[in-house]
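User: I'm new to structure prediction. If I give you an amino acid sequence, what do you actually give back? Let's try with this one:
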Amino acid sequence: MDLMELFFFSLGTAVVLYYGVRLLLFSRMLFPKLWFPLSKSFFTSMGEWAVVTGASEGIGRAYAFMLAEQGLNVVIISRTKLTLDQVAKEIGDTTGQKVKVIVTDFTKEDVFSEIEDHLRDINIGVLVNNVGILPNYIPCKFLECSELDKTITKVINCNVKTMAKMCKIILPGMEKRGKGVILNISSGIASIPFPLYTLYSASKVFVERFSQGLQAEYKDRGIIIQTVAPFGVSTRMAAYQQTNIVTLAPEDFVKSSLQYLRAGDKTNGSLCHIVLGWILQCIPLKVIYTQSILQSLQDYVKKRAAKKASISESSVAFENGTKK
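Assistant: Good question. You get back a string of structure tokens that encode the predicted 3D arrangement of the chain. For your 324 residues, that looks like this:
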């Protein structure tokens, strides 16, 4: 075998080994309970309480319920007291666990000293940084966002600052006890620079990078810090799209995502979303960035928004005894 043949043989072997290892690693995602098992007492072994931000609905509410079902008491934080009180009652009645309610608006400034006072001396084993907002429901270019200055401040406060501040409040107790879990909710669209969602996706990139750096710093202290980056979940932010193999109900997504808790510092939370993430990163950006693709995305969301508004108006008209 001459030198050239040896080179190509070695190159081919390296490529086969590389993709073989990747395939083996991916195959573990098919059987998370086998590869990443959690004991029944795992969450209660972390501490007595879980804290969930943005817990009044959607993914946050589902995490609060799921963690309470695992035996943890729960602190739920959001800005709507009426809804939080209702969720707290449902969790308490269903699971028998204690539930504390903290009402705050994370888009505002200087809300964290009060939160810290409420959480002082509580043995917190799990933190779920779930709260987040979209700049605009209808995707649009950055300069087309309404009230752009206010929008920038709200997005940074809610999606970026809140996560860092909540970690600052809760992480010291975890470090002291040498155990804990922090789940920071990102988004699948943060996998690439995403036009029309530029501000939102960029804020979620911060979530991912912050989480990965934090995990590297505190992993040897017995603390698990993971980014959870879902794609389609049927929540208000996604206009409550009908559930299917790609768009999951919040409860189904959370149940699935917790099975990947030991799968690394980032997970898309479910097998179909993991595959979607892989596909998205394989598509050339030039294809995604074409005007026709972006226009189709914008038109699709507008159509769904109009349909949702029409259904809401029809419901109100029916309740009022009128005919549309």
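You can read the tokens as a compact description of the fold. Here is one thing that stands out. The chain is about 55% helix and 10% strand.
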